[in-house]
Write a structure and sequence with these properties.
By secondary structure, the protein is α/β, with parallel strands linked by helices. Helix content is 44%, strand content 12%. The structure holds adenosine monophosphate and magnesium ion.
Length: 267
């Protein structure tokens, strides 16, 4: 999984990252899904210990182009975890009140507490992506945000937050297919926005903006992973593996009871 990790301070060229990559994985979809089920079960156990131990905080950030699969990851990777300890925070276009504050204000309110896992569906990175592509603020304003983001994430990390960031990498053809599927399928149509077709025209600008994000904000304390995401099952498999690996690295334990239970007999 290290293969998909972005090393700090590198120049990222997304054209060199294959959205169909399968790394060393030799199996097909069926094997992939079977393995995913095992990993998700492991994730369920790890999340329970995270909650019980009440020590670490876990923040998962998902960013992608439209149809990239953020919702799919949330449904398929976290399908077993206990909703009591996991929360999804989705960030839409900011409200008037949010715009009156600094861009991290609404973000900071949603970060995980001890024992909690929070998944960001979009995030503060929109403030250097869509905001940059559409010139919502001048370059000197968004240009400063990379450092501000790194400092913010460092603060979270130094206060017990494990941060994992996933860019779901699809290509233009895959997006076309997925948009078409949304148009054709009555069950998916509600997700289709004419605005998505407008955004699609800005694809090269977005790639450029993502390359800066990935190159400038992948750090030891808050790394980015570029996930090959044309194949949904492989995307989920990689993300679940990274999560399991990272959570296992925290060496969490169930806590002792706060009371002395020695000699307790239940009549
Ligand atoms: P969706 O995730 O499809 O529901 O769409 C959410 C929309 O909110 C997307 O079009 C994002 O680009 C937009 N959005 C999220 N954060 C920001 C932001 N900080 N500034 C402007 N637009 C944003
Ligand atoms: Mg959308």
């Amino acid at each position: 999984m290290k293969k998909y990790l972005v090393k700090p301070e590198t120049k990222v060229k997304l054209a060199k990252w294959d959205p169909n990559d399968m790394g060393d994985f030799k199996g097909g979809k069926e094997e992939g899904l079977a393995l995913l089920e095992k990993l998700n079960a492991r994730l369920e156990m790890l999340q329970e210990v995270l909650f019980a131990e009440h020590k670490h905080k876990v923040l998962v950030i998902l960013q992608a182009m439209d149809t990239g699969g953020k919702d799919g990851v949330i449904r398929r990777v976290f399908d077993r975890v206990n909703p009591a300890g996991v929360r999804v925070a989705s960030f839409k276009a900011p409200t008037a009140e949010e715009l009156d504050h600094d861009f991290l204000w609404r973000i900071h309110k949603q970060v995980p507490a001890k024992g909690e896992m929070v998944i960001f569906n979009r995030s503060h990175y929109e403030d250097v992506l869509v905001v940059r592509v559409h010139n919502y603020v001048p370059p000197e304003v968004w240009g400063r945000r990379f450092d501000q983001i790194n400092q913010f994430e460092r603060t979270l990390a130094e206060n017990g937050t494990t941060i994992l960031k996933f860019y779901l990498h699809i290509d233009l053809d895959e997006q076309k297919e997925r948009l078409q599927a949304r148009l054709d399928d009555p069950a998916k149509r509600w997700k289709f926005r004419l605005g998505d077709l407008e955004e699609r025209k800005f694809w090269p600008d977005y790639m450029n903006a993502f390359e800066d994000v990935l190159g400038k904000t992948s750090t030891a304390y808050a790394p980015w992973y570029i996930i090959p995401a044309n194949r949904k099952w492989f995307r989920d498999l990689v993300i679940s593996s990274v999560l399991v690996d990272t959570l296992e690295g925290l060496k969490m334990n169930y806590p002792e009871s706060e009371e002395d239970l020695s000699g307790v007999v239940i009549e």
